[in-house]
């Protein structure tokens, strides 16, 4: 058997500096080859270097998940050159507030493309490989907006409702084929540079465990992937203990 087929790959679509990067590192620590994507390869370099410094294996790809051909090429390359994708995480965010009175058609469509349509393209491409092998895990990063739309977030809420519905349909169809699909509702501020710089009063709650630690979020993604199939979770809510809901 070739070395490619002896490796297990965790593909993280949208491996940013916080949640996506933490998920990639978590799977790499478990022996998975972390394949991570962003639209800019340069922005992935710190994450790749960190994973490798910790003894893990990682590959970065500049890829636009909204483009069907790029998604197909990405999945084909990974499966052929690196290893079978055992877990895929769709983690693209598009949390851009705007009044419905001022929202433009162009921006609304772009947010939907990023946070919903791209999820369809990537999960479908990976699901075809997983179903053929009879195993796999597909995880979607959701948000409170996928459960209820807040004022000023019509575009984001529409996209997140869409990705949750996609996850539900996929879970019902693919579960009997031994592919675990789950949706993670991340409800609360995450420990990021954006929150630190833009919302200092909110960031101050970090010392009280009042904002989400990306490493702890990543632990939950690994937990979902590790679940035995007689007790699969579809939807998992993550929120700080002080968060109202």
In brief:
The protein contains nine helices and seven strands; from the N terminus they run αβαβαβαβαβαβαααβ. The chain has 245 residues and is α/β, with parallel strands linked by helices. It has one domain: 3-Layer(aba) Sandwich (Rossmann fold), CATH 3.40.50.720.
Give a description of the structure.
This protein is α/β, with parallel strands linked by helices. The protein has a single domain, classed as NAD(P)-binding Rossmann-like Domain (Rossmann fold, 3-Layer(aba) Sandwich), CATH 3.40.50.720. Helices cover 45% and strands 18% of the residues. The chain has a 7-stranded parallel β-sheet with strand order 3-2-1-4-5-6-7, sandwiched between helices. The termini are far apart. The model has no long low-confidence stretch (mean pLDDT 94).
Rg calc: 17 Å
N→C terminal distance: 51 Å
Helix content: 40-55%
Tertiary shape: globular
Written as H for each helix and E for each strand, in order along the chain, the element string is HEHEHEHEHEHEHHHE
What order do the strands of the largest sheet run in, or round the barrel if closed?
Answer: 3-2-1-4-5-6-7
Uncertain regions spanning at least 5 consecutive residues: none
Work out the number of β strands: 7
Structural class, from helix and strand content?
A: alpha/beta
Number of separate domains: 1
CATH topology: Rossmann fold
Mean pLDDT: 94
Number of helices: 9
The top-level CATH class is Alpha Beta
Strand content range: 15-25%
Mind describing the biggest β-sheet? 7 strands, parallel
């Amino acid at each position: 058997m070739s070395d490619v087929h002896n490796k297990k790959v965790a593909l993280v679509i949208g491996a940013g500096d916080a949640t996506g990067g933490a998920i990639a590192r978590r799977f790499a620590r478990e022996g998975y080859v972390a394949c991570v994507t962003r639209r800019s390869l340069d922005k992935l370099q710190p994450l790749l270097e960190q994973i490798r410094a910790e003894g893990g294996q990682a590959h970065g790809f500049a890829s636009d998940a909204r483009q069907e051909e790029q998604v197909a090429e990405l999945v084909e390359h990974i499966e052929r050159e690196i290893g079978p994708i055992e877990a895929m995480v769709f983690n693209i965010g598009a949390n851009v507030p705007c009044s419905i009175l001022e929202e433009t058609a162009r921006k609304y469509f772009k947010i939907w493309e990023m946070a919903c349509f791209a999820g369809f393209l990537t999960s479908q491409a990976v699901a075809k490989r997983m179903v053929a092998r009879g195993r796999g895990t597909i995880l979607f990063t959701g948000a409170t907006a996928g459960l209820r739309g807040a004022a000023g977030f019509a575009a984001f809420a529409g996209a997140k409702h869409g990705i949750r519905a996609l996850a539900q349909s996929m879970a019902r169809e693919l579960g009997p084929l031994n592919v675990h699909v789950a949706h993670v509702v991340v409800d609360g501020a995450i420990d990021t540079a954006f929150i630190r710089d833009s919302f200092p009063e909110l960031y101050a709650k970090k010392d009280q465990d009042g904002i989400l630690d990306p490493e702890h979020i990543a632990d939950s993604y690994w937990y979902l992937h590790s679940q035995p199939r007689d007790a699969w979770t579809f939807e998992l809510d993550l929120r700080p203990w002080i968060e109202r809901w």
